[in-house]
Amino acid sequence: MEFKALQQQHNFLERLDLLGIGINIKFNKQASHKNKNGGLVTVCLLGILGYQIKLILDQLYDYPHPYVLQEQKFTAEPQRYNLTSDKFILTFGFQNSTSQHYIDPTVYNATLTIKQTIKTKKEATGQFVVSTTIRTVKIEPCRIDYFNILEVNNYFISLSYQNMYCISTEETDLYFQGQFDAQHYSAFELVLDKSLSQLGDYLILKSRQNESDKKKQDQNKSSQENDKKEEMYAQAADQILITKEDQQKTSFKFELQKSINQKSQGSSSKKAMEKNKIFNKVEFYKNLKEQTKLQ
C-alpha cells in the first residue's frame, strides 16, 4: 500500500514537470525523413521569400525617386449658346439699406462689356494667334416685355424690375461659348463704380493740391538755379589774376564780393537785376585785363 501511494505521488509530480527534456529518435542516423517533394516545396518557399525581399528593396529605392502618373482627360469645348430674350434673362442692380433696388446715376454707374476671344492656328508656324474683341453692351432699366420665358416670368415680375438694369433689346450677336483656355471664348464682364459727381470734391481738392505743389517745386527749382549762378560768378571773380599794379582791379574785386553778399541778403524780387549787374562787371573786368596785357 505504501508503495502504491509513493508511486502515485511520483506520477503526479512528473505530470507537473514543465522542464522535461525531449526524446529524439533517429532513423538511419537522421533525425528527420527527407524526400524530393519536400525539396521542391522548400525551393518554392525560398523563391517567394526572395521575391518579396526584392519588392521591399525596390520600394525603398523608389521612395526618393517617385514615378508620377499623368493622365490627360479630353473635355469637349462647350458649344455656342446664343443669348436671346426667349432663352436668357439678365437683371442686376444695387440695393439700399432697406434691401430695395434703385437706379441713381449720381451714386453709381454700371458698365457691361462682352469679351470674345478667338484663337486661330497658323499652318506655317503651328502657333495660335489670339484675337480679342471687347465691346460695351447697352443696358437700360428693365421693362416687362424683356421677360419672354414663361417658366420664370413670374419670378422676375415679382421683383422691382423697374429699378434694375437689363440688356437692351437692340443688342445682337451676344453669346456664351467655350471656356477660358478654349479656342473660342465669350463672357460678360460687369463693372460697378462710383459716379463722378461723388468724386467731384475729391478731384477739385486734389487738383488744387497739385497746383500748390507745382508752384513750390518751381520756386525751389528757381532758387537752386540762382544759387548755382551766384557760385559761378564768385568763382569767375576769384579766377581773375590781380597784381600789385592793378589797384583798381583789386578794389573792383572787393566791391564785387560785397555786392554778392548784399544780393544774397536782399529780397527775391531784386535778385535778377543784381545778377545782371554782376555779370556785366565781370565781363567789363575781363575786357580790361585783356587790354592791359596787349599794352
The amount of beta strand, in percent, is 15-25%
- The secondary-structure element order is HHEEEEEEEHEEEHHH
Basic shape:
elongated
Numbering strands along the chain, what is their spatial order in the largest sheet? 2-8-7
What's the N-to-C terminus distance? 172 Å
Global structural class: alpha+beta
The helix content is: 40-55%
Report the radius of gyration as a whole number of Å.
52 Å
Mean pLDDT: 73
Major sheet, described briefly? 3 strands, antiparallel
Helical stretch count? 6
Q: Indicate the low-confidence ranges by residue numbers.
A: 199-209, 239-254
Q: How many DSSP E strands?
A: 10
What's the SSE blueprint?
Blueprint: H1 2-16, H2 36-62, E1 81-82, E2 91-92, E3 94-95, E4 101-102, E5 108-121, E6 128-137, E7 139-141, H3 153-158, E8 165-167, E9 175-176, E10 184-194, H4 200-239, H5 247-265, H6 271-294
Antiparallel strand pairs: 1-9, 2-8, 3-4, 5-6, 5-10, 7-8
Helix pairs in contact: 4-5, 4-6, 5-6
GO biological process, one term: reciprocal meiotic recombination
Region (Disordered): 210-231
